[in-house]
Design brief:
This protein has helices at about 1-15, 40-45, 45-50, 55-60, 60-75, 80-90, 105-110, 135-145, 170-185, 200-210, 235-249; strands spanning about 20, 95-100, 115, 120-125, 135, 160, 185-190, 210-215, 230. With about 250 residues, the chain is α/β, with parallel strands linked by helices. Strands 3-2-1-7-8-9 form a 6-stranded parallel beta sheet, sandwiched between helices.
Length: about 250
């Protein structure tokens, strides 16, 4: 593993523009469960009942209960050493952007600035009816008071500003992500199962445009064959020595 980390670090050190793509495994060491692993969110709840646009409209009680629990977990979470390592890599000028499937905001909390959020975020509330957005406090305060979170502009129900199943990704964010992957000399994929499209296609986009692809993940992914380097392990175990080796190169 040490040799593989050293080789991957050499590729990153030589790259004029590198990009990271992160998934739920990036934040498990911060105490936030992923979706599909044992003990993950979809082991606790059926996503059809709590994470779809249909659920938001038809069974809001279950929907809000799920997100109330997610927000409580997030309130107790902090960036881990993996987040900090990527922030350090960006601060040193060796990482041009982070594309994340996560909605937890922990990259920004760690100090990363160039973050593209593919699936939205849990900092904001959003109204699907009139497109108003505002602080997530509107939802947490309403639920705490036992009332339905309502849009201050049109009075429709609001939801966290995340992409639900049955919704499209924000097109501007995905265009940014694709453009970054086309430009990247290295794409570093961390903590993503690469099972959710269209984000899962980004390593292929990068590879087709000549990038070196590095995958850091606990488990195999459907796109390991696309990568020149596959580093098996958690973000917190792999990223600190990887970034340290890049900085020494």
């Amino acid at each position: 593993m040490h040799h593989a980390i050293a080789q991957a670090a050499s590729a990153l050190a030589a790259s004029p523009f590198s990009v990271a793509l992160t998934g739920a495994g990036m934040s498990t060491e911060s105490g936030l469960p992923d979706f599909r692993s044992p003990g993950g969110l979809w082991g606790e709840d059926d996503p059809v009942e709590v994470a779809t646009l249909t659920a938001f409209r038809r069974t809001p009680e279950k929907f809000y209960d799920f997100y109330q629990r997610r927000l409580a977990r997030l309130a107790a979470a902090a960036p881990n050493v993996g987040h900090q390592a990527l922030a350090e890599l960006e601060a040193s000028g060796r990482l041009g952007a982070i594309i994340t499937q996560n909605v937890d905001g922990l990259h920004q909390a760690a100090g990363s600035r160039q973050v593209i959020e593919l699936h939205g975020n849990l900092r904001e509330a959003a109204c699907p009816q009139c497109q108003w957005t505002g602080s997530i406090r509107l939802i947490t305060e309403a639920l705490g008071a036992g009332t339905v979170p309502a849009c201050p502009r049109c009075a429709a129900r609001v939801k966290p500003n995340v992409v639900l199943f049955e919704e499209l990704l924000p097109q501007a964010a995905y265009r940014q992500a694709e453009d970054a992957c086309r430009r990247a000399a290295v794409l570093l994929v961390v903590g993503s199962s690469l099972q959710v499209t269209p984000a899962a296609w980004l390593p292929q986009v990068a590879r087709q445009h000549g990038a070196t692809v590095i995958i850091v993940n606990d488990e195999p992914t459907p796109f390991d064959h696309v990568a020149q380097f596959v580093l098996r392990g958690r973000a917190g175990a792999i990223l600190p020595p990887l970034v340290a080796a890049v900085q020494k190169a």
